[in-house]
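User: quick one - fold this with pyridoxal-5'-phosphate bound?
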Amino acid sequence: MIYLDNAATTYPKPPSVHSAVASALSRFGANPGRGGHAMSMATAEEVYRTRAAASDFFHAPGPECVVFTMNCTHALNAVLKGLLRPGDHVVVSNLEHNAVMRPLHKLAERGVTYTAAAVVPGDGDATVDAFRRALREETRLVVCTHVSNVWGVRLPIGRIAALAHQYGIPVCVDAAQSAGLFPVFLEEDGIDYVCAAPHKGLYAPMGTGLLLAADGSALDTILEGGTGTNSVSLDQPGELPERLESGTINVPGVAGLRAGLAFVRDKGTERILTHEVGLMRTLHRALARTNGVELFTPEPDGESFAPVVSFRVRGVPSEETASLLASKGIAVRAGLHCAPFAHRAFGTLDSGTVRVCPSAFTTGRDVQGFVEAMRALGRNSHAVHKEKL
Ligand code: PLP
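Assistant: Sure. Structure tokens for the protein plus pyridoxal-5'-phosphate:
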């Protein structure tokens, strides 16, 4: 199989992640922080090591700023629903995933409103201006994706955070597509909340998510329950991360996350980015010369455009293109990619797109295989088109 659906979740995972998960099942099989016995304590230590590694990776003030969640959606819900109150206004970008838009839509029932700032791809100044114009007196939060999961457009998060902070507004960045490729630093970028999907560019197992909060004290809980601490009280503990981590956490996933973080750190995010951008440039150029293919963004440059390419074949539903590719053993994703907002911005809401995204494991041969399959489909789509005429 040629797997090019890495924007959904990366595959394969590094061998070190496999062994970390397998070894966690035997070495860290007790509930962390719930028992005073040796294995419970060893498990708690492993969880702490991962917290510290994530804190280092995202330049958070400390391990206590790292909350393990089920996925990035959970982390985003924890910020949006933990922070926003009736009457509050939120500024988002017009490229947001449903992991942001659906919770906001739900919060609208409680009187939260939002304005979408129109990102100008490749133009940081115009994008920041759009965010500035969207701010209001009652804006309580700015939420923006770092990299669009559909178009690969990269947003200037540091500048957006600086703008919001001029007005005392906190910023939440959806780093689902960027963590592991681009730096996302709480301290240097001045980001208040980072939500990440480690099962993507950090090569962790599915079922892992991260919320990093420089100061989580403003976040109310969206889930209450056992934390293993101060059990006599019915009040949820006040301290992070316990306050936002009720119930048993995904320890094998957390151990796999530590190995994934080490994999990315050892390889280097810049090297991974350069590798992926090189592959996607080749792929983009080949697609641009393929019969019937419509592209919507320039070649990925690793600056304004991340290595994600979305396209469609004129007159062919994107799902059909994807299933023809699947029949040749090539895995890509078709449709709206859970981001109808991002499609509306580019005029592809009716058709969706076929999305291709590599990982550190993708090779030039994989890309070549994809290009040849697309050329064959292009020839066929041309023939079908002519027949129709
Ligand atoms: N945000 C973006 C930009 C995404 O691409 C995704 C997943 O595709 C998410 C959020 C949600 O991530 P998760 O599936 O980990 O909840």
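One thing worth noting: Residues 383-389 have pLDDT under 50 and may be disordered.
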